[in-house]
Amino acid sequence: MRKTLLITGASAGIGAATALKAASAGYDLALNYHSNPAGAKAIAAAATDAGARVILCPGDVATPEGIADIYARVDDGFGRLDGLVNNAGVVDMIAKVTDFTHARLRRMFDINVIGAMLIAKEAVLRMQAQGSGGVIVNVSSAAARLGSANTFVDYAASKAAIDTFTKGLSDEVAPDGIRVNAVRPGIIETDIHAKAGAAERVGLITPSIPLRRSGHADEVADAILYLLSDQASYITGTTLDITGGR
Ligand code: NAP
Question: Which of 25, 65, 118, 232 is the most exposed place for a label (fewest CB within 10 A)?
Fold first, then answer.
């Protein structure tokens, strides 16, 4: 039987790459997006061509209503959930801490932290009710340990929260056979940098990366697929750096 997998933020970048690899690996997919239906539909079509049953789950992970909408589609469409890739996330424009506003921090933490925690909560409730375990992969960032001074300290702190959440949740649900891990990508070539008005940042940071190149969304997706798989059956509560050594 094909396993069912919810991927948040599947309309672009790392979430989209994960969806395509998961379809080929035999998962049926619930694909969440927020503002980019065209991107999500294109990924859904490609995943369907690769053999997956796909449902689209529009919704803003930053709101309780959005999360309810997402899970209503999952419940109606699949009636069960075997895995979650908690990927939706944002950065903001480059700024120093002295320029931060309450509105900026509210948005960042509503999406990256509170949204991710409540999306995971709803996945766990379903996995516990099913009684056959499950797998969650949270998408953190190397920023969690680098701190991102002078650029995105708020983003880095939001991802540090995800690292701590990953460890704590994994301990809580391990007795239920549910594994919870995180990936910590470094500089990956997606549109997230341009959305932060910092497309040139990828090239500027590349010389400081030991492997001397940025990463590709596919390389993060491969690590996520591994952590989802039975090959990672004894791995829980950990974070995996995908950073080219940075
Ligand atoms: P991306 O190309 O900008 O994609 C972000 C995805 O998140 C989009 O599908 C977007 O959906 C979704 N999203 C944003 N806000 C949302 C919301 N409120 N509700 C639901 N979905 C929302 O970025 P990416 O680089 O693939 O990033 C994916 C994850 O990797 C993020 O958590 C990011 O922090 C993390 N990461 C990225 C890098 C990197 O260098 N690229 C490095 C470390 C960590 P819509 O467009 O449909 O709104």
Answer: 65
Per-residue pLDDT reduced to its tens digit, 170-187:
999 999 999 999 999 999
Residue 28 has pLDDT above 90, yes or no: yes
Question: Which one is catalytic: 27, 33, 71, 155?
Answer: 155
Residue boundaries of the structural domains of the chain: 3-242
Is 126 near ligand 1, meaning CB less than 6 Å away? no
Q: Which residue minimizes the CA distance to atom 39 of ligand 1?
A: 188
155 in catalytic set: yes
Q: What is the residue-averaged pLDDT of the chain?
A: 98
Q: How many residues does the chain have?
A: 246
Residue 25: helix, strand or coil by DSSP? coil
Question: Structure pTM?
Answer: 0.99
What is the architecture of the domain spanning 3-242? 3-Layer(aba) Sandwich (3.40)
